Amino acid sequence: MNMFDLTGKVALVTGGAHSIGFALGVGLAKAGATVCFNCSSEGSRQRGLAAYAEAGVEVHGYVADVTDETAVQAMVKAIREEVGIIDILVNNAGVIKRVPMTEMSVEDFSKVIDVDLIAPFICSKAVIPGMLEKGHGKIINICSMMSELGRETVSAYAAAKGGLKMLTRNICSEFGGANIQCNGIGPGYIATQQTAPLRERQADGSRHPFDQFIISKTPAGRWGTTDDLVGPTVFLASSASDFVNGHVLYVDGGILAYIGKQP
Ligand code: GCO
Hints:
The chain has 263 residues and is of the alpha/beta class. The chain has one domain: NAD(P)-binding Rossmann-like Domain (Rossmann fold, 3-Layer(aba) Sandwich), CATH 3.40.50. The protein contains 7 helices and 7 strands; from the N terminus they run E-H-E-H-E-H-E-H-E-H-E-H-H-E. It has helices at residues 19-30, 42-54, 69-82, 106-134, 155-175, 209-217, 230-237; strands spanning 10-13, 34-39, 60-63, 88-91, 137-142, 180-187, 248-251. Strands 3-2-1-4-5-6-7 form a 7-stranded parallel beta sheet, with helices on both faces. Helix 1 packs across helix 7 and helix 3 packs parallel to helix 4. It is globular, with a radius of gyration of 18 Å. The model has no long low-confidence stretch (mean pLDDT 97). Bound molecules: D-gluconic acid. D-gluconic acid binds at residues 96, 98, 144-146, 151, 154, 157, 187-189, 194-195.
């Protein structure tokens, strides 16, 4: 028996039209799951469907604002009717605003908390009843280095991702007895559009100072790729992890273990 086989499982990936969510959607589909992805607009849905088709993967796309409980409940209901009860939820949708705290508006702080912390609550609350009905479920929260560490300009993001680590532990605590496992994936520094500003080449062609910093802090000596996150996510989505619960699996090339290379 292949304990990593997801055949017969229905997965929902929020923010799954591009970047990390897209890579995870492709990976879950290639592991056998029937994948549904969520995005915020019809344009994103169409672009996402085209990208999955180009990757040779058939998926279902759904538009819903993940901070809107009514919209999320309607999406989960539509998925149940059109695809099936959701077995695997990946709370991936997220935003970041890099602003010094004293310059950040409460509105901007709240927006980050809404998307990065309250939306995973809303989506988890929407899928758990179906998981209870089926007698099993997997919830995977995309956490962050900022679930463990702070840094300048990311106060809202760190507060949200720290909270998401504890929401992960609480869902484990509240529903572990119903055979629902809730774990996190903690990406290190991954080369995506979201981190592109941190990797921009300088005018003289040199690396961005933050890029150099991350390279010095990562034993692997490189930024991660979205593909680095796929295997750990398939593991947490599969029966191979049925006794793993409330854990955040850091996929960071060793950053959290390393004091950093001597300058
Ligand atoms: C930042 C980065 C990080 C990464 C990721 C690390 O500004 O420090 O955006 O937050 O995106 O979350 O795990």
